[in-house]
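Dock protoporphyrin IX containing FE; give full complex structure.
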Amino acid sequence: MEGNQKERRAISQIEEIFGEHEGYRRAHARGTGYKGTFEGSGQAMELTDAAHFRQAKVPVLVRFSHFSPDPTWADAMSPVKGMAIQFKIGPEEVTNIVSVTSPVFFTHSPERFMEMLEVSRSFQRGRPKLGELAELLMDFPEVRAMFSSVKKMTVPESFATGIYHSIHAFYFEKKGKRQAVKYLFEPEAGEDKRSLKDMKDLPFGYYEQELAERIARSPASFKLYAIIGEAGDPTDDPTRDWPKDRERVYLGRLTIEAPEAEAEQALYDPTVMTAGISCSDDPILQFRRGAYRHSYEKRIAENEGTKKH
Ligand code: HEM
């Protein structure tokens, strides 16, 4: 398939399985938008001149989300939560980080991702259960590993108390040198977890409401770190995390201050970044560019058509 054809096909496959939910993102459909600031630490200046990591404050849009492509799924059905950030570093310039509460993704190539979607089509329509999906995907060894960790998985108690990972590697670049990094956000409120079992009685929309109440009392904040890759750490395979002992550089502090409608509409393309940072050759990361653009164009057209916001 040529051009963005593959990405478009993947979006159609998602719609066939999880339903077409007009006006919503085709993944991470339900979420909540905020604005705030990011204050760079200036501690990565030897590795990159990227504007948002200098010692200065920039405005940000932040969107928290539940991973499901179906916005009607209960909070508990989406054990993985997302945090997407757009740093507004200039009048016309933004740079993004899109992160989730899992250090790894479940597949390493777009082709494999689409194969898995194909298998999942036999999935009972409407309200598929994670258990049924797990059974269907047991032939994929990488999925087996992921589901066994989901069973033991804990979920953040609040959007504001999760540890969020970029999963993919990126390069910091300066003076002809480059350094592989991954991003990690740690909540200043401390990590707070519940088991999947404890989540089943949560009311629909609990996470959005809890966050709104929390931020009405005081801002939520995260510390952002760059994990410094070493020789041999994979930069093109999102199913493989790096060893835990890697050095970290503190990049700055994210503060989330108030609800913001623009943050719900925005496109957080994980490949959009400013000078001083570049994408790794991870095929999943490259694939996301076209898939997000296509989903964005669909939902914006649908929202304009129905005036639904
Ligand atoms: C084959 C790989 C993937 C595909 C096809 C895919 C697809 C999508 C799509 C279509 C959207 C909605 C975009 C929009 O309408 O703006 C989305 C959102 C999202 N994805 Fe992915 N994704 C993939 C991998 C990942 C990975 C590896 C991560 C881990 C960081 C991730 C995290 C997110 C998050 C946090 C959002 C919500 C962003 C927002 O709030 O706007 N995705 N994904």
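Observed: The pocket of protoporphyrin IX containing FE is lined by residues 10-11, 25-28, 31, 63, 65, 82, 84, 98-100, 105, 110, 113, 167, 238, 267-268, 284, 287-288, 291-292, 295-296, 299 (CB under 6 Å).
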